Amino acid sequence: MKFSDILKSASSNLMRNKGRTILTIVAIFIGAFTISLTTGVNIGVNDYIDKQVGSVGGQNQIMIQPKMSGSTGEEGEPQKYDEDKKTSSMQQQEALDSKDLEKIKEIKGIKNAEAMKSVSTSYISGKNDEKYVFSGMPMVEELSVDLEAGKAADQNSSEFQINLAPEYVKSLGYKSSEEAIGKTVKIAAPSAATGEEKVVEATIVGVRNTSLIQGGMSLMNRSLADEISKINEEGLPEAMKGQYGLIMGEMSKDVTKTEIADVKERLDKAGYMGQTVEDQIGMIRNVINAITGVLTMFGAIALLAASFGIINTLYMSVQERTREIGLMKAMGLSSGKVFTIFSVEAALIGFLGSLLGILGAVGAGALINQIAADSFLKSLTGFTLIQFSASSSAVIILVIMGIAFLAGTLPARRAAKLDPIESLRYE
């Protein structure tokens, strides 16, 4: 008896009692639907978080700042105020300079480092000449910018370019992000010494998607950041020029968590503190994973209940087909083949239930995504709440089929052990 014959026999046997089979499939459907939907939420949220990580420097970037001194004591407790020192919180953190940059580049685990110039801006104005409070930051090398429209600002261009934050599009007089592309905006930058403002014109080459990490923050290419920094430093003593508030370090692309921890330890010994973007938003990821994990457990409970349904369905099927089983064994069908027939029936129930559950989750996910995009996620452009992948769907189907197969082994084993003579006498 070929496997194809076994498959055909199992399929036809399932339809002998359609009501019982359908109810069992529905039970599996509920579990598969719940697990697929929660897995989709997990994939969607983590994909968005990954985009956010990429938009501020990527997985292998580490933000390096001077280590705060005097803020904490032993075991992380606040340090007591020293009347003699009278040091304020603003004085506890020093600025970085070119010497720090060279020192950081020599630390083991840091492949490259780039100074992030502190740029100060007063306002921005666009098509309607209205002035709005504005803040921007220089771009990082190899930055993967999550854009709603346009392209990333060119770091090697001499032209002043900007990736505008989406919050400014309509305020500056543009109907859409697409309309803003190629337009010129005016950015005012003050001198830290005199307070005198100078206006710089820049071209909008891209509009960012809404960011959880850098809400309202626009990105400037190197030329624009250098020009604004130059204006900010006008009139300052030479000793106060060329200082940075942050240095972005680059590690190897396949860096591990252990290696990142080692780099942080070396930075700490050198008098710096390092923080990855994952450190900043890791808590969000952990919360989402915990919530979807709990919801997945409800799906697992539904599958457990469905497993008992499979056992019940096949046990009743064995009882109803006792004489048929005896006849098949009397005609030479081995116990192994009988066991395989009933096991395949169980796996088929699992396959149908899981496939329908995934298809149902995909349909519900599309509807939920549409509702979310039009309501509570309207401001988070580029965020698809529920996403599905072929690999995760395949894993769900295989796992559920495996559970169904295991649930079917008990009745299948009973069928395989039936004595053909006794079975033929069964009424």
Automatic annotation (TrEMBL):
<feature type="transmembrane region" description="Helical">
    <location>
        <begin position="388"/>
        <end position="408"/>
    </location>
</feature>
<dbReference type="InterPro" id="IPR050250">
    <property type="entry name" value="Macrolide_Exporter_MacB"/>
</dbReference>
<feature type="compositionally biased region" description="Basic and acidic residues">
    <location>
        <begin position="77"/>
        <end position="87"/>
    </location>
</feature>
<feature type="domain" description="ABC3 transporter permease C-terminal">
    <location>
        <begin position="297"/>
        <end position="420"/>
    </location>
</feature>
<comment type="similarity">
    <text>Belongs to the ABC-4 integral membrane protein family.</text>
</comment>
<dbReference type="InterPro" id="IPR003838">
    <property type="entry name" value="ABC3_permease_C"/>
</dbReference>
<feature type="region of interest" description="Disordered">
    <location>
        <begin position="66"/>
        <end position="96"/>
    </location>
</feature>
<feature type="transmembrane region" description="Helical">
    <location>
        <begin position="339"/>
        <end position="368"/>
    </location>
</feature>
<feature type="transmembrane region" description="Helical">
    <location>
        <begin position="21"/>
        <end position="45"/>
    </location>
</feature>
<keyword id="KW-0472">Membrane</keyword>
<dbReference type="Pfam" id="PF02687">
    <property type="entry name" value="FtsX"/>
</dbReference>
<keyword id="KW-0812">Transmembrane</keyword>
<protein>
    <recommendedName>
        <fullName>Permease</fullName>
    </recommendedName>
</protein>
<feature type="domain" description="MacB-like periplasmic core">
    <location>
        <begin position="21"/>
        <end position="218"/>
    </location>
</feature>
<keyword id="KW-1003">Cell membrane</keyword>
<feature type="transmembrane region" description="Helical">
    <location>
        <begin position="294"/>
        <end position="318"/>
    </location>
</feature>
<dbReference type="Pfam" id="PF12704">
    <property type="entry name" value="MacB_PCD"/>
</dbReference>
<keyword id="KW-1133">Transmembrane helix</keyword>
<dbReference type="InterPro" id="IPR025857">
    <property type="entry name" value="MacB_PCD"/>
</dbReference>
